[in-house]
Description:
mainly alpha, Helix Hairpins, two-stranded antiparallel ribbon, 4 strands, voltage-gated channel, Volt_channel_dom_sf
Amino acid sequence: MDYCFTGVFAFEMCLKLIDQGVLLHRGSYCRDFWNLLDGIVVICALVAFAFAGTEGAAGKNLNTIKSLRVLRVLRPLKTIKRIPKLKAVFDCVVNSLKNVFNILIVYFLFQFIFGVIAVQLYNGKFFFCTDKTKRYAHECHGQFFVFENQDEPPRVEMREWRLRPFNYDNTINAMLTLFVVTTGEGWPGIRQNSMDTTEEDQGPSPFFRVEMVGIDSTLSPLLDR
């Protein structure tokens, strides 16, 4: 089925190139955005099929070539041009992004400012031991027992000093973590981890400031538009 549809789209692309020309004159194939999108999808599909035949021998371990198959997810984008109502919705979304671009710049600026502050406050403090009974790095060594089911014997695991997925060890990670906080999804866990690094009742206060500035001042006007 994939070969059939790819062949049809490739044939359509060839006919348009013959009829409209490639690039040099007005109305040519490459001067239309939707034609370019169609061409990219078709070329990516053809390249993926071309390398698919080498998987059994020389290309068996070439992960980069195998990843080209992912480009086939672009095929549904071809329907945007063929359905006028869907194309109108897509154009509306693109035009709306232009209107909120300035708000996104302000939001990014606040994210960067709070990210730099968070690195100064929490840098290197979001590590934890896989053994929950150990709180400090000098204690996190050796082995411990893990009890998952009373009917099964415990298993032995090594203690490891790990870094949490959302942390503030650099500005990029800090901005990503703050983005999770401002979206309101999953931020209680990050807040709890921050409380473990500070004094009692001091951990939540930076998050309330981020919520006030990040959501009330930037995201709310963005959503209202």
